[in-house]
Write a sequence for this structure.
């Protein structure tokens, strides 16, 4: 729909020719994100994921950000690489992102990985993919793709971002006179 399978030879091809158009195309073809809401690798924080000898510095290819909150991590792989490894790396990154927020607030709720041949997705805290579609199924007429688009729809994620922003940004307002000090300071004559 966005390109031909034969056009996808490298990770960069998967990122630029398939994933980015999918993220920015309007519903029902794509997720409907605006370009400034799709953060690229160069702008993302790097985390040390995994442990011991497997540990490595990592950042995903894209992070979907609304209202200043990172809501989804996206990983691209070459067509010959294991897409499930990309999903695992995304999950570890989402865990690190969510750990930056107070307990019970996990803004990075969804992850997905794509190698051109397959696109898999899951909630950030689930081991197995709940969406698994092939390149040929990337079409709004296919039920599995429509389900994927509904999970990553910008309008749905904007509602989630608004709710999380209210929970994160609890503001306390004070009258200016209370900032002067106690009752004695307020009632003191100059």
């Amino acid at each position: 729909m966005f390109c031909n399978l034969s056009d996808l030879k490298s990770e960069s091809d998967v990122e630029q020719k398939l994933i980015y158009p999918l993220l920015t195309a309007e519903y029902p073809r794509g997720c409907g994100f605006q370009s400034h809401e799709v953060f690229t690798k160069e702008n993302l924080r790097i985390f040390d994921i995994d442990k011991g000898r497997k540990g490595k510095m990592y950042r995903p290819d894209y992070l979907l950000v609304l209202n200043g909150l990172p809501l989804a991590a996206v990983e691209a792989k070459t067509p010959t690489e294991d897409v499930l490894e990309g999903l695992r790396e995304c999950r570890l990154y989402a865990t690190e992102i969510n750990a930056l927020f107070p307990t019970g607030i996990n803004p990075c709720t969804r992850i997905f990985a794509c190698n051109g041949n397959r696109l898999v997705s899951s909630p950030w805290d689930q081991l197995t993919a709940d969406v698994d579609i092939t390149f040929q199924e990337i079409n709004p007429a296919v039920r599995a793709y429509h389900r994927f688009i509904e999970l990553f729809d910008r309008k749905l994620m904007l509602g989630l971002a608004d709710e999380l922003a209210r929970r994160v940004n609890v503001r306390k307002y004070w009258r200016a006179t209370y900032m002067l000090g106690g009752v004695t300071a307020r009632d003191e004559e100059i």
Q: What stands out?
A: Residues 18 and 110 are 19 Å apart (CA to CA). DSSP finds five helices and eight strands in the chain.
